[in-house]
Amino acid sequence: MNRPFDTKCAQLDDLLGVGRSFDMVSRELYVGGCRAKMWVVNGYAKDLLLERTMEKLQAIGTLDGIRDVDELLRRYITVCDAETCRDRMQAVTGVFSGKTLLVVEGFDGGILLDAKTFPTRSVQEPDAGKVLRGSHDGFVENIMENAALLRRRIRDPALTLERVRVSGRSKCDVALCYMEGQADAKTVSRLREKLRQAPVRSVAMSQETIAEAISPKQWYNPFPKVRYTERPDVATASVMEGSILVLVDNTPVVMVLPVSLLRFNEEINDYYFPPLVGTYLRVIRFFVMLLNVIITPLWYLLATEPGGLREPWDFLLVEGDYAVPLIGQLLLVELIIDVLKLASLNTPDVLGNSFSMLGALILGDFAVQSRWLVPEVLVYMAFVAVSNFAQHSFEMGYACKLCRMALVLLAFAFRWWGFGIGLAGVLVLIATTKPAVGRGYLYPLIPWNGKALRALLLRRPAGKNNT
Q1: How confident is the model at residue 406 (pLDDT cuts 50, 70, 90)?
Q2: How much is the pLDDT for 423?
């Protein structure tokens, strides 16, 4: 930026879109008798703070004796977070990030003032992951406020919040959060390099764009390679256990790495109850997830067994006639459940109860009376639908759903042999899942770590190291 003042300002006006974009504000002023100019995005600036800064700058009598912008910053800039900048594109990126750029005639470079405020919603508990006891706050779309929520809970100098800028176009701010000395240094370094080299031009879908960029390309594998949370207490507990957080600006969702299969069996409610109750909840959640995958294909095989079932298992048989084959009924209800989920996302809250009654009456009673569906199918699929909500991870819920549908189709095509091959295929799929970073998807089973495995299976008393 070492060029005549008018040329410098004209180039910055062109790069920042002054005159093209209505929200880009520029202001000419005098500082110590020298011409100066400021640029800021309207809606980002803290008006009172900038007014006090400009008042102090315009009160300067002369700039004689000021050698460069670094000395000008030290003497007259009262904004706490301010820095000099001599790279033109870095200055432009800083303005688009919410900072205020000040350029003074006769000085090489400029000063970036961090006097910004972002429009954001209030800190409130997220809809997903509610607790009966505990804190009821949640992350927001502002990365600085999210960092403050973590700092409030972890007042330890080992807590490190490291900024990494990704994306060649949007210049999105991403932060790595970890405990220095506790998080695995090699994992942190590998994740840092992955973020810096991520082939991302624009972070259009926030955390999902970042996750897909750093995760191995396994399009055929539905199992999630990243955990997500919107709760500061969950993120804090994960950091204290040695995990790494990835905070992305413009989203309240925080990524938790590394990840393994058994990590999805944990939930925050486990830690807001006594250890025995927390362990019981984990056991229930594990068996519910297992039943979620195998209950409908297993019932289909038993219900369609050519030789019939003897007492006391004859209750599994289907009584009465039906127009649609059982395999078609199971797949149809799977589809209906997803349609209802999609419809509920777009249903206004005031119509939610009416929509639920309509779905229950039409899709339940009418389907049974018209012999499209048998009551047994509705019972088992209702269990599957309810059990999905016992899994707090939507990604893991849909992975189980896809595996269950594959098992149903294999059981229909090859009977018990197909069911057995399908189960083996699911195990192979899990074992070959490659997480974004970490020791493996089956850790601490493979490689074996007995202490870590006990910590994941059993809820231990608070205050003990679970790593």
Answers
A1: very high
A2: 95
459's tokens: 């809820």
Report the residue count for the chain.
467
d(CA 9, CA 1): 10
Rounded Cα distance between 196 and 199, Å, is: 9
d(CA 140, CA 254): 10
Judging by beta carbons within 10 Å of its beta carbon (0-12, 13-18, 19+), is residue 332 exposed, middle or buried? middle
Backbone angles phi, psi at 164, to 5 degrees: -130, 125
Would residue 33 be called left, alpha or beta, if left means φ above 0 and alpha means ψ between -120 and 50 degrees?
left
Residues 6+ apart with CB under 8 A from 299: 316, 376, 380
- C-alpha dihedral sign at 147, 148, 149, 154: positive
Which of 117-121, 155-159, 461-465 bottoms out in mean pLDDT, i.e. has the lowest?
Answer: 461-465
- pLDDT at position 55, please? 84
How many CB atoms within 10 Å of residue 214? 23
CA distance 295 to 334: 13
Whole-angstrom distance, CA of residue 390 vs CA of residue 285: 7
Please state the φ and ψ torsions of residue 34, each to the nearest 5 degrees. Answer: -105, 145
Q: What pLDDT digit, counting tens, does each position of 180-201 carry?
A: 989 989 999 999 988 888 777 6
CA-nearest of 392, 463, 436 to 128 is 392
Note the pLDDT of residue 78.
81
Rounded Cα gap, residues 336 and 372, in angstroms: 13
CB neighbours (10 Å) of residue 36? 24
Does the pTM surpass 0.85? The reply is no
Cα angle: 32, vertex 35, 40; to 5 degrees? 105
Task: State percent of the chain over pLDDT 70.
Answer: 88
